[in-house]
Amino acid sequence: MCEHETKSCPRCGGLFECKVGSILLCHCADVQLNETERQFISSQYQDCLCHECLLQMKEESSRQ
User: Fold this and answer.
1) Which of 12, 13, 16, 25 is the most buried (most CB within 10 A)?
2) Distance of alpha carbon 7 from alpha carbon 20, whole angstroms
3) Which residues pair with 7 in a beta bridge?
4) What is the dihedral angle through the alpha carbons of 15, 16, 17, 18, rounded to the nearest 10 degrees?
5) Helices 35-42, 51-62: crossing angle, 10 deg rounding
6) How many Å apart are CA 20 and CA 22, to the nearest integer?
7) How far apart are CA 38 and CA 4, in angstroms?
8) How far, rounded to the nearest angstrom, does the alpha carbon of residue 39 sit from its chain's CA centroid?
9) Strand 15-18 relative to strand 5-8, pairing
């Protein structure tokens, strides 16, 4: 089973390590999103975002 892969963030283009095989170790597990925030992000992006972009999108969704 693959535990991580290098991905390019579709928002900023930066590289990050996705650990979907060990989701509790993945950076996205640190960003708590409610359902509204998840929907806001998924309406614009279909793939994983880097940690910084997740935080920025979380903040952006609260201003909508």
Assistant:
1) 16
2) 11
3) 16
4) -110
5) 110
6) 5
7) 22
8) 12
9) antiparallel
Q: Calculate the alpha carbon distances from 10 to 1, 15, 19 in Å.
A: 24, 10, 17
Q: How many residues does the chain have?
A: 64
The single-letter code of the amino acid at 16 is F
Distance from C-alpha of 51 to C-alpha of 41, rounded to nearest angstrom: 13
Q: 3-state secondary structure string, the chain?
A: CCCCEEEECCCCCCEEEECHHHHHHCHHHHCCCCHHHHHHHHCCCCCCCCHHHHHHHHHHHHCC
Tokens encoding 28: 């996205």
Structure confidence by residue, pLDDT tens digits, 1-58: 556 789 999 999 999 988 877 777 777 888 999 999 999 999 999 998 999 999 999 9
Token pair, residue 64, equals 């909508």
